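Researcher: Quick one. three chains, 599 residues in total.
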Amino acid sequence: MIQILFMFFAAVALGAAINVLAQKHVLYSSLSLIVLLTSISALFVLLQAEFLAVINVIVYAGAIMVLFVFVIMLLNLPADEERVDRLRWLKLIGIPMGLFLLFMVGRTVWNVEGSATTPELPGTAQAIGASLFTDYILPFELTSLLILIALMGAVVFAKKDL
Amino acid sequence: MIPLNWYLILAAALFLLGMLGFFLKRNIISLLLSVEIMLNAVNLTFVAFSSRNGQISGQIFVFFVLVVAAAEAAVGLALVIAMFRNRETLNVDRSNLLKW
Amino acid sequence: MIEYFSSRDFLILAAKMIAIFGGVMTALAYTTLVERRLMAFVQMRPGPNRVGPFGLLQPLADGLKFLLKEQTVPGNANVFLYYLAPIVSMIPALLSFSVIPFGPDLKIADTNVSLLFIFAITSLGVYGIVLGGWSSNSKYPLMGAMRASAQMLSYELSLTLSVVGVLMIANTLSLNSIVLSQQGTWFGFIPRWNIFIQPVGFLVYILSGIAETNRLPFDLAESEQELVAGWHTEYSGMKFAMFFLAEYANMVTVSALATIMFLGGWNGPMFGPWWLQMGLPTVWFVLKISGFLFVYMLIRATIPRIRYDQLMRFGWKILLPIALANIVITSFLVAIS
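Model:
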């Protein structure tokens, strides 16, 4: 049963990722990315990390992608204007090279043993919170500083008179 | 049970798709989306290993990756708005004033 | 796998799903009727009372009308997104009911992150509005959609932060455990509800919930006096019915969460024989939700709309600091006790 779920969500994830690259209009790419994010959240649930799955949906699919969709709609972007022909040989060589790289990585990774889930990992909010606020408190505070810097940067860059 | 290498192969495939998109696309927003695909693939690898080893630090790191992705998306989109206001196009090949 | 689908557990689960889904859909249909009658009584007119006795068959007539209307698509509209938007609006609205406990046994799923699951699902509901407004290719829906998405995104923050106080007291994210932690009484007669311990959190949650579901006084996105009908101007027939039902389902979800977290969920005085006691928790739950819906509709009928800049200022500069202060004070009190 779990295999069927994994196959389904993996197929949806790969299909959505290919769709992100294949669409001409960037709004459809963003919508495919939202599908990708929800299927990755489903894979997180299969890996017993349900808190992270829900956080993924709230933060990524519910906030960051809304920002993307907002910008695309407000800028009223057209579809990609020209099909530049000098990209064609780049794609003709690039995609087989990418597949070759995937084959090499896959051959190395294939020897990793063991099942993906161990039963003693909680993955709940208590476990993550306990570790986040004791062992990793310094990176946590630094990320809040990072968000503040990003906030200031975004406000400055989007002003009319730079 | 699902063996771990299935998750790693899936994450590698997603990462490579994001990388291909980053190299082959010309629209700035498509580049940002490809970066997001790569970050998600990395998240999947972290969570898979965290679930395999029974340690929570993999999931903690995913938190930080999520925060960095949010910050980068915000600043990147602000740059997109600034660039679109100046040039009326989102093709990165057109922003080549600093080239030799 | 086949033996799971024909086992007794799955059949009971399927029966619960059918019962909850059927009950929710019927309740949504009759909520529209109650709203119209209530607003009519506030405005000193009778409201729809022709179709059945007291207008009880009005939702049926409305449903038939929606089904039989002509399906139009505005010219130059993005057809794929135009058809996708009501679906994207409806699915999260109905999915939230899968984790809400209607009784001690009447729940479909009980994960240990149920509360965050509902917040995640409602934050996906923004896309229905944004896509619907943009794909209609007309200026009123676009303005309504932009306003609605900015408003929903801003008030999601204070919505999520206002329940952190309850989480710290109940020490769990699972909705069933939150309901169970409010059983019993203090001094024998005051029920152990969270509203007495977290009044500020309750107020912030209710205000953010009204803003989140785009209801008056926060419904600038679909204000009938300014933008013809906001983001669903160009929608008619069954697609409009899906938007409509999604809005009411969101209202019911917000009310259900408010009762679970602050008013004790399905807890209530138990009396009577065993067959009455099996259904009594659900009755208490439905009564409390109805109270909230009543307040929602009364607010809609009486209070004027606030302006967009006042709305954003209220969300960011007033509600968000109050929610944060609530978290700080509650954590302090929880730590010292």
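The CA atoms of residues 68 and 74 of chain A lie 10 Å apart.
Researcher: Thanks, that's what I needed.
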